[in-house]
Design brief:
By secondary structure, the chain is α/β, with parallel strands linked by helices. The chain is built from seven helices and five strands, in the order E-H-E-H-E-H-E-H-E-H-H-H.
């Protein structure tokens, strides 16, 4: 599994170290334009976004709409604007202080759940009639 981690350097360093120790490949950045460039050029399975990044709503929406990968927020214990965070279209929330095993397990569960929700029959709808005749 390949993950992009986007947010404050301190949090992203902790996330990267934790996930690498659990066998998950992590690309991390604290820069939004660099995060978008990485998403454009890398094959990634999930995005971990620091809930305190500037314009987190736009970042999450952009990731979901343009790349269609799950988005999980890293939240502080006493996140001030919890209601606003719940309104974001994300696939989950993980406390900043979650241990490496918990973090990795939750991310794997999100990716697994996302792949199970995809209806393989829908892919057949994109095929032309000629493709069915083969």
């Amino acid at each position: 599994m390949r993950v992009i981690a986007f947010g404050s350097e301190m949090i992203m360093q902790r996330v990267s170290t934790s996930l690498a120790g659990e066998g998950i490949d992590v690309v991390s950045t604290s820069d939004r334009p660099q995060a978008m460039a990485l998403l454009k050029h890398e094959r990634l399975d999930l995005a971990v976004v620091d809930a305190l990044v500037e314009d987190v709503e736009a970042s999450c929406r952009c990731i979901r709409e343009l790349w269609g990968i799950p988005v999980v927020l890293i939240v502080r214990e006493r996140q001030a604007d919890w209601e606003r965070l719940q309104s974001l279209d994300t696939d989950g929330y993980i406390p900043e202080r979650a241990g490496a095993a918990e973090l990795a397990a939750r991310l794997r569960a999100v990716v697994r759940h996302r792949s199970e929700r995809r209806d393989p029959g829908l892919d057949c709808l994109t095929l032309g009639v000629e493709d069915w005749a083969r």
